[in-house]
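Thanks for the sequence, V.! I ran Prepilin-type N-terminal cleavage/methylation domain-containing protein right away. Repeating your input here for the record:
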Amino acid sequence: MGFTLVELIITVTLLGVMGTMVAQLMMRQQRFFQRMSDQAQVRRELRTALSTMPTELRGVSSVGGDISAFSASSLTFRSTIGTSFVCEKTSSSSIDVPPINTARTSTSNWVVTPAVGDTVFALRHDSSGVSGDYWSAHRITAVSAGAGLCLTSVYTDVLLDAGKSRYRFTVTPTLPDSVVTGSALRFTRTARYELAQQTSGRWYLQRKEIQAGQWTQGVVVGGPFVAPAPSGASGFALSYFDSTGTTVAVGGNSRGIARIDLALRAQGQGGSDPSATIVTDSVKLSVAMRNRR
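Predicted structure:
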């Protein structure tokens, strides 16, 4: 039993209509899943940036001069890379610190080993009481390590810490007499957050720092973000305020900054469909400068 030409035409037409409907349904599903994927990616990038920047910025001392340059789209500051204390002051320009892996108590901790060009802040006691405490800034000019440093220090165990490497830092300017054995130390390195355009043409939030007198290549913190815009709707926007809530204008006194407001606007990849709406999301956060001395 065969089919007439009319029946074949009707069948082919129906199959075409059904195929078109199925294709459109699949395309809508693909767009839906792409949008959901972009939305998840956008929120993930925002969380990544929020888990990195505020933690680092809260350790900044604006009064201490940690902020060296600031604008609506970038921030250059001293980032804390480690802490320790003086286990021996060998001269007016040289201090030794305990090992980072002491057996009993962890006294030296850093994300990266302090290097030449970094800044160490030493807590000096110029007079009695808390009001006499002051952080003295010193640039590191030389770094050496050896197991023969701080051997008789009360902060290390003679037997359990034997053979462990300790560090000696030579600094400038010279250390005042009020920096003594037991004085706290804070190691910092100049870093910068800013938006940077990658080869893909998209903008990413990146962090770079100064090592050996040179800016390192930026490390991507998150993205892509909305491109910079003069209207203030950039993917990375910063606002600065003093302790009274008054805006600190760009080019003003960085030591007066008590709060930094961050606005992050991330966007999705957009997928392969140029007509699809690009997913965007934003978040705002205020970071108070904790170390106001």
